[in-house]
Structure of KLTH0C02838p:
Amino acid sequence: MNNNKRSYVSTVPKANPLRVGFIGLSAYKGWAIKSHYPAILQLPSQFQVTALLNLDIETSLATIKKLKLTKATAFSDVSSFASYDNVDMVVISVNVPELFTIVMELLENSKANPNLKYIYSEWSLGKNLKEAEAIHKAAKERGVQTIISLQGRKSPYVVRAKELVSEGCIGDINSIEIAANGGWYGYERPIKSPKYLYDAASGVSLLSIAFGHTIDILQYITASYFSEINAMIFNNIPYQVLLDEHGKKTGEKAEKTAPDHLLFQGSLSHGNVPVSCSFKGGTPVKKFSKNLVIDIHGTKGDLKLEGDAGFAEMSNLVLYFCGLKKEGSMNVSTGSSGAETMEVYHLRNYNSVVGNILRIYEAIADFHFRTNPRTKLPPKLERQGFLFEGFPTFKDALIVHQLIQRVIESSQQKTTLPTSFEAV
Amino acid sequence: MNNNKRSYVSTVPKANPLRVGFIGLSAYKGWAIKSHYPAILQLPSQFQVTALLNLDIETSLATIKKLKLTKATAFSDVSSFASYDNVDMVVISVNVPELFTIVMELLENSKANPNLKYIYSEWSLGKNLKEAEAIHKAAKERGVQTIISLQGRKSPYVVRAKELVSEGCIGDINSIEIAANGGWYGYERPIKSPKYLYDAASGVSLLSIAFGHTIDILQYITASYFSEINAMIFNNIPYQVLLDEHGKKTGEKAEKTAPDHLLFQGSLSHGNVPVSCSFKGGTPVKKFSKNLVIDIHGTKGDLKLEGDAGFAEMSNLVLYFCGLKKEGSMNVSTGSSGAETMEVYHLRNYNSVVGNILRIYEAIADFHFRTNPRTKLPPKLERQGFLFEGFPTFKDALIVHQLIQRVIESSQQKTTLPTSFEAV
């Protein structure tokens, strides 16, 4: 298998690119200009920005001018944006605390809009399970194809790891250890850093971001959800030291309710595989381990993913593989000709912030333009699940939210809990 | 501090060495001849074997002859051995399933023996908590000084790590990850391997050996017990493939009830430190991680202990340290003169099987002969706890057994459990 090759349509010019309405694209700040926009720029035949919505219309107008988005119209509110029929796809890249209201309003006000087919939202799709469920339900009723930015699934290292697992190159997985060190939630924080990042209720936390993305990647690679989990959530740093713009201590402190450590352990339903996870908050400063390690052990070999911080979905990783490999074979584990081999996968200049999201856009284009003759995807993708093809959907997001909810319950109730998502 | 320097009495000739009665020393097989005996040989002025008891008296007589134990008498049963008054210390090195009966019989039958002062037993002091409690109680009533072979505490790497922690060289510990791969309990086993090793009830298991020793070392280094724990015990390999003496598959299988994986997580009572542990059974074959890793992170630096298998107590380790260090200072963390430094500790030719036990014998000699002018040890050492000086006792063993019992309960009851040993 080679699921890392370039997508079918990505270089084919199209007369009718998907018209993209963007909520939260500013030329001046934010995540979208660093990730979504450079990705879309690489697919000019497939995507074209036609509408823009920001907190204020001035930002949208200035962005249109600066980025030369000649086909784009600026809007001042969600309802007029939602009813604009020159849009096939809406991309929502706003701060998580604001996401719920905007998405719900968009879905409500776009009901009469005949052309809107795709909604692509940033993870985490709402602050909590309740919001994610409501959004998922509303999107389903609205009938749009959803896409969620669990973009770690598109990391070339994750895809390669998944291939090696699915081809039996490490045999049956029998244990997994994960240790990650996230960026926020440590002893210090910049005084200008938005408060919601340190508020447990905001939905942007070690649990949703570092754990959510990483565990989604793990489930994707192993093609298994969890059957049982236990978690312990720590807030050992209830007050953080504030730093000025030069990184110097201001002498002030600020409250933090967001967790700074998560211990998680459980068994994967496929193979009852023990998984041990330690997610640490704060600056990644580990000296003798990489600050992101996913260590997968099997009966025939090992896989190890390493990165510089606990953000697997946007880090350039290194994949180490030792195991059996036979070119062209779909199932090495049963063949006797597989010889043990050792490989390292690393693209030194891979821009993972843009690259993983670019590959989501490629997957959307592949799905929409249907140029892949081998595609087995249905006309509507309810969830990607563990498919190589396609893209993660709101349903996939919901499954991660359900796991996070179980993590919170397990920690609060001090219990080991069953988790079953197969029947979701 | 330098707690790794040679003990005070180890080279001082003594007119009256401690007279050692040995249960389970055979010149031909077993653990004692590889570990205890070479250790005692290095301390001829402090220890002298005067009595020997094995399953049969022929083994003892042959051992006396072969090892030239000219002062030793062979015994044929525990009761006559126990009443032999030419013994100051009894060392018990037998298989764990037999340990309880022998120790209890020894304590019972030695009541009239005026000279017996020390009983040194192999870990795990009984098959389970119940046996360990009974032995501890009987030894206390008998009034002997107990010593337990939790010899990992005497590993020079463990002692050095403990020093660095206690001197504040890595600041406050804020997270710990442990991953270990034990030797037994995997997919295969030698046909001649004793059955009790694979029987969950035998008391020799991934829990008691790999986990027990390692977690005792961790608690010793951090000077903290656990306040809360969760565990999941796995037996994913209920049948093992049997191998002949050449390592070839015989085609037969044998039942295994002993666990092959333990997931453990919890918080240390001192600092509420999150600790994540994954103990894997089977041949240590990890390719991209050492098969024993203890990763300790602090606010000022890191410590990492690595070894080749999940038996920290008898492995030659490597200790990596990065943090603050000021020569001669007892508390670096509060001093401003500490500069970050990086060091690796490794004695290439350290024989850890003998060495750690030798250092227990040295500690016993130091304790008995009282030649250390700085000693703060009481006349009777109820437990070593987190002292550098002294040696682990039956009480220390009991504390580890209580933790193991909690691990079993946590896994069975699917709960996160409080653990408090301070008041034991």
Notes: Chain B is about 25% helix and 25% strand. Chain B touches chain A through 42 residues (CB under 8 Å). The longest helix of chain B spans residues 394-413. The domain at 153-347+394-410 of chain B is CATH 3.30.360.10 (Dihydrodipicolinate Reductase; domain 2).
